[in-house]
Batch of 2 targets.
Target 1
Amino acid sequence: MDFTFLMGQALTNGLVIGLLYLLMAIGFTLVFGVMRVVNFAHGEFYMLGAFSAYVCVTRLQLPFLAAVLATFVLTLILGWIIEVVVMKGFRGDELNGMIATIGLAMILQNGALMVFGPDPQSMPAVAEGVVSLGPVMLPMSRLYVVAFSLAVLVVLYVFLMHSKGGRALRAVVQDIEIASAQGIRAQFMYPLGFGIGVALAAIAGALMAPVFSVSPSIGSTPLLKAFIVVILGGLGSIPGAALAALLLGVFESVANTFMSSSFSDMLLFGFVILMLIFRPSGLLGKAGR
Amino acid sequence: MKKILAITALCLAGTASAQEEIKIGAIVTLSGAGASWGQAMLHATELAADDVNAKGGLDVAGKKYKVKVVPYDDKYQAGEAVTAANRLVFEDKVKYIIGPVGSAGALAVTPIVDKNKVMMLTLGFTDKALGKDKPFNFRPNLTTMETSQPQINWIVKAKGIKKVGGLFPNDETGQQIAQDLEKAYTKAGAQLNAKEFFERERVDMMPLLTRLIAKGVDAIELDGNAPGTAGLIVKQARELGFKGAIIRSGGPATSEIVNVAGTSAANGMLVNTPIDPANAAVKAYADRYFAKFKKRMNGFSPAFYDGTHMLLQAMATAGTTTDTDKVRVALENTKDFKGILGTLNWTGAEVYGVAHQISAPFYIARVQDGQEVIEATCSLTECK
């Protein structure tokens, strides 16, 4: 088949996957920005989001949109509680905070294993059928993901840029001390930032649940990708994460389409290593403090 | 005083009439990834033991023996399997072992059981599980080695397939299976001309499938992939508009694949299956299994039910429960055993150097609305 088919298919696949990475990475970088903690449990919230959507849709018979909203609210609350109960002592403590999140990840994953069992579950697709643009096939189920992710990103943008809470959150990300001095209540912002961060991961999980399968071990790959994205984009930088996520999605997809999978993975990590050597602050990140 | 005497007498009477016991050890996976297979094997052995015990025990050289199953969980790990084997052989003093499930475990415990002349019925798919130097190892289930060639011959001919593409996990298992399948397809007159290897945790198959489809393959092969991954491949291939055949040449996983891919995407998939749903004996067995264990049986279970019965029959024929050299020979000489799977014989002399591999019928099924519908019945030489 011809080049237009391959290229068109690769680009559209890449964009869809890029949006997934974007949701993951923004949450990840937000948590880092606020707490200065690398959240190793981020992938497990993706998994929890997927299970939450799965339970809402298959057991409670909720419509998909309601399931995604319920997932967001539930994980926001869960994230808030975890921040206050577990992470409070590790705010700004990079090393110990990181170890705490590794423990948290294990607890969440094994908890899911005990509750849901190890077998992969499947959720019914949100939409059946395929839209074809010339030779390029666009599965409806993935177009839904695109629409939902874009909607979530718009809401997040409006919240961060044009609301009081969002401004306060951004201020905390930029400089916690100055922000506190200006009267922002940090005690309130830490759990909010953590909650929103992990809830974004959960939304990504909920959106991808009908596209992929649902099992307790699905969190590790998205976590790895979120890492790569924030390294490329600059840790703590939200526009950097957005740019890097889309670039990564498209790069991966195109490389996988035209090269063997193992070679394109090597190429990708080679690229990440070069980035770390020559521009450790990432595409749009500021130099470390 | 009278009372004590009476009790003592009762006790003595008790020991006098107590039956002799045959202990069968089981090294099976009861937790983690291989749990469904391990349970299937253990429960099969238990059901076979129930059969014999319900008749008052196994009659060996005029004495009745009760059969008792002693299970240990190996967690699908070779190290745990070795621990279990040591306990079974040296503490529980068993002479017969069912298991292990995994290839690594089977290879790891072989030296222990062989040295102590303990007979072992293993599921392990590796071709090294059987051999002249492992005289006490038997395998009551079919592996890809036995089933792939006749099955591929039939599919290639019946479905007119010329170009096959396959996605395989990028590790030892995946590479080996890709190589074996490539040979089998070439022999059958088709070509496995698009192979893609990927990391096991990958979930987005779209780019790889795009490439396969662009090469114009008639069929996609799923062998070697874990059930969940295979389901994702099926789902995404159909989403990309792939209309060709989807084939799974080995590893019973249909229900899991249908679960992940959805009923409509899995329709038309051609799979290898050890079980004919129309077989009344197997159906009765499956119902009995469900009634007792409240779980649907895995496809490997009937093979081990038959295998345990063959082993017990061999003890009866040999007239001993302790001399495993004699029991081994009796088991080897078992011919045309009527099991629930059909007529069973031992084979494998050319491949493994020793005829300790079961030869059982198997089937090619088409998946229709989530159920397997038999398309062809196979022996180890051909499918019809």
Target 2
Amino acid sequence: MYESENEDDRNRGGHVMLNYEEELKKFKPSLEVEDIEEAVYQEDLSDMTDLLREVMDQTK
Amino acid sequence: MDYTKKIIYQSNYWYNDGLRKAQIRDMSGAVASLRRSLQYNRGNIEARNLLGLVYYGRGEVAEGLVEWILSKNLKPRDNLANHFINKVQASASELEVMNEAVKQYNLCLVSCSQNGEDLALIQLKKIVASHPSFLKAYQLLALLYIRAEQYAKARQTLRIARKLDTTNEMTLRYMHEMTSLRGQRLREDKRNKEDAIEYSLGNETIIQPKHGGMKVLTSKLAVMNVAVGVAIGIVLVWFLILPAVRKSQSDNVNKQIVEYSERINAMEAQISAQTRTLNQYRESGENTEQNAQNAAITADSYENLMSVSNQYASNSYTEDLMADTLLNVRRDVLGEGGQALYDDLVGKIYPIASETLYASGMASFEVANYENSITTLDKVVRMYEDYNSGNALLNLGLSYMRSNDKDNAVVKLSRVVELFPETEVATEAQNALNTISQGEEQQPENEG
């Protein structure tokens, strides 16, 4: 639980135990169908094998 | 065991963990486990497909599609992702609705950050109605309800969110918030009760505040404040909102009137155009009819002309008989050659025919056979209107008069007066006209 840190939240109707502004920041925009292609290209596909190879390359 | 096998085992372990969690609808836990599985082995197709399905299950369709597309690229054949993608593509309308809901959700987030929570709350209600598995929307809606102190609705929304994802940290935190809030309220109620004296009187339990006077005064003041507030509200509505509403209604009515006027004008223009078209068609029809009649008359005239020409050449027909046919020829419809032939025949036939017919007509007139005299004298007059210095026309008029055909009699007699003024025939015709008019005057008197 978050303690309300300023008086404004109390005045705006927010519950005293919950910081509305802080909670709102945790909500992120959801991916839209139009952005799927870009999301596919940006997906990080590296896995443990890649990491190990990199480590081995560095040790050589 | 080499490290690659170990990695694959680890990946499978986390996949199994994710699968177990997904089966009990612990979506958040499943996502975490499956992500870990893919971090060990990105080629774990089952883990990736299940991750997509979990995203889809909590309403994040696009995220699910991303995982399935990646899966398909890693393993194009014999892959369950193909089935999922095809299913989604087959129901394009549903995908459209879901995507629209996602877009609206994103807009709501922007609204909330710009103090537009009221609007966002209304919009989120619509979003969860159109896309009922959209977990994030439920959570944001619950937060807005909590902010607006609509705790019952917030609790109800959170219950649905928990069904979609049983262990979501945010949902559980908000629910815990609700629970602690309820406890706080119960404590407050208890404290309020402690401020009152409770005792029984017969069957009734009476609760009386400990410090009655002050409390009553406070409550009275509160009631008065509310009443004053309501009165101010009514005045504001009366002077500020109602005029605006009336103006808006009046504007709407004016707009409608203008719209109807435009429609009426358009319809009138249409009717006018159609009437014009109809008239054109009618005129065209009349012209066509007239042309057909003219063609028939021309054909008849030529036919009669040829017939008379043949009769004259055969030398076996009397002039009065040939004149009968020739009278049915109209000179004006003939061509130059036709007119020349007509003039030639008229010059040869009419002088003899008119003489014969006039003699016959006068004979009938003398014996008061006016029917016959009208027929023959009419032919003479049609040949030569001034025949025998107007006597043919005069006797035709008299024949009509004596056979009680006053209209034709007046026409013929008037023509005599007009063509032969200051002659004997004109005087006789005028006398006959006077007789006719006197007879017409006397007749109404007799009838009267």
